[in-house]
Amino acid sequence: MNSEITYAEVRFNNEPKSSGAKSEPPSDKAWSCCPKNWTSFSSNCYFISTEAVWDDSEKKCSSMKAHLLVINTKAEQDFITQKLDKNSAYYVGLSDLQGKNSWQWVDQTPYNESATFWHSGEPSDRNEHCVILNFRSLPRKWGWNDVVCNQRQRSICKMMKIYL
């Protein structure tokens, strides 16, 4: 069985032409990118998707080699919310599918109660097992709200940047 690997040479105008010797790019100069129509922040890429129920939203993200949004920092949530429509709600990858108040992220990141962004009074209902990111006019901020999983909402997919 034969396999063929094709390489492309990339260089800047001020760099000398390659001698053909194999060399690794310095780690601090690695290139990274996101797929077309995705937004970049830190070491991740984000895609805002169309409306679907929570399970179908996660499947759609998975089909793109991603997962529903896992929010790790306030900076990440602040970046994402700048890209969102205040009149829509967006599924994120946090759920309590067993209904035991045991919230879990889709990528198995540990749930840290001290690093959450729930709206005041949330989570509020043991029958609501999925989480949306939405904007509330009072107190004029984005936050998390637990909802039933069969509501059609928009969603946000997340993947690691592609490093070249």
UniProtKB/TrEMBL annotation:
Main location (coarse class): membrane
Gene Ontology MF terms in the entry: carbohydrate binding; metal ion binding
One biological process term in Gene Ontology: adaptive immune response
Mode of membrane association: Single-pass type II membrane protein
InterPro entries cross-referenced by the UniProt entry: C-type_lectin-like, C-type_lectin-like/link_sf, C-type_lectin/snaclec_domain, C-type_lectin_CS, CD209-like_CTLD, CTDL_fold
SUPFAM superfamilies, per database record: C-type lectin-like
UniProt xrefs under PROSITE patterns: C_TYPE_LECTIN_1, C_TYPE_LECTIN_2
Record carries keyword Transmembrane helix: yes
Name of the molecule in the record: C-type lectin domain family 4 member A
Protein source organism: Catagonus wagneri (Chacoan peccary)
Lineage: Eukaryota, Metazoa, Chordata, Craniata, Vertebrata
Gene that encodes it: CLEC4A
